[in-house]
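Input chain follows. Return structure tokens only.
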Amino acid sequence: MIIVVLLGLVVLVTALTLARWYATADVKNLKRTLAWLGIGLLALAAAFLALTGRMGPALAALAGLMVWAGRIINLLHMGRQFGGVFGARRAPPGSSGPEMTEEEALRILGLAPGATADDIKAAHRRIIEQIHPDRGGSDYLAAKVNIAKDFLLKAQGRT
């Protein structure tokens, strides 16, 4: 009975310590630790299955799951390609309503009044490289940056 209580206390203290670490850990360290934890758990599971003689059926089940996972991933990729089919895309403010002001466009691109067309294009290129949706950025932010660039170039009489 005492051993069960002591074991329970050890598990509780360990869980609380891990919860505190999880709450204060930086993302990079957390990802690395969780990846190694996952690898360790997979190794333990593989060793258990090998020692109990169940490795063959487990590998067959894993192969079947991988086939279905591949199909699901393909469906998700198709969903991204057909964007509007699986969910309506929201137009950014200013694209269908009132036009953007010059002050707002300059603020979005981080430019001062009187910026040249080359300055506008360079600022657009610099920002869009960081927030482009193909690199994990936001569709909304990329659209706002594009609208700001187009507005400023149109104001200068260029496109």
